[in-house]
Amino acid sequence: MENLDSATVLIVSVATIVAAFTLYAVYTAFGPPAKELGDPFEDHED
Fold it and tell me: Which residue windows are transmembrane per the record (predicted)?
């Protein structure tokens, strides 16, 4: 494997972190932890 530029390593690292955060957010919003989230529209019936 060739020696990578530091900019390439930085871009791949940032992209990996952003992808991991996005996947965790989707898992939290729609996966099993979503049952613990409250719905503010259902909590306040005006």
Answer: 6-27
Length of the chain: 46
Pair 40, 34: CB distance under 8 Å: no
Domain boundaries, the chain: 6-43
**pLDDT tens digits along 5-18:** 999 999 999 999 99
Q: Locate tokens 């932890």: which residue?
A: 33
Query: Given this model, what pLDDT does residue 46 score?
Result: 64
Two tokens, residue 33: 């932890």
Single out the residue of 7, 9, 31, 11 nearest to residue 19, CA to CA. 11
CA atoms within 13 A on the CB side of 37: 12
